[in-house]
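Z., the sequence and structure:
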Amino acid sequence: MLNSRFGLSQLRSVVLTTIFATLGLLMPTGVHAQLTKTPASASLGSVAQGEPSALLPVTLKNTGAATITLNSFTPSPGIYFVDPSSSCTAGMHLAHNATCLLQVGVNAPVTLGALPAGTVTVASTAPNPSLAIPVSGTVVLPVTLTASVNVGNSLVGFSVLSTTPVVLKNNQAVPLVFTTGIFGPFAEAGGPGSCFSPLAPKSSCNL
């Protein structure tokens, strides 16, 4: 019978030390592995309505001394997905301090506004066997343009320049090809500003 002063942690240490000594190995410090994620949550930012989002990389790291196995990756709800281009795969082994990348995205959302709260759950053999990665984002129109510009009052025969630029924004994950045209008693002052076609993904310019 064990001495009452001899706790379970000490017993565990003795058993592990004996096992490693029998195998001719040095017992590592901190046998348990720990799976971590960076960033702590996956914010997809602005996602164009009706189009898949850009992929967001999430780094998984084994900060423990023992090798672990990544068993599965489960997105919820179903509009979220883990892309096949991820270097993290089901069944892979992650050694001490090793990392891999999960590529997280959302399939073509249709409703404008905040995406439903999502989660990608990573199941593994780590001491924290279920690692949850929160996923969020906002659905916006594929292309937005300043609604209107007020040039104020003008004397007859004189022109007035607006000090407020018209902002064109491409919220898509692909370049935007466009042309501009101005109608009525208006003209574009000073050329096309900073707007040139094609407009890069996730960028804006001033007309």
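The first helix runs from residue 8 to 22. Confidence is low (pLDDT under 50) at residues 1-31.

Let me know what you think.
H.
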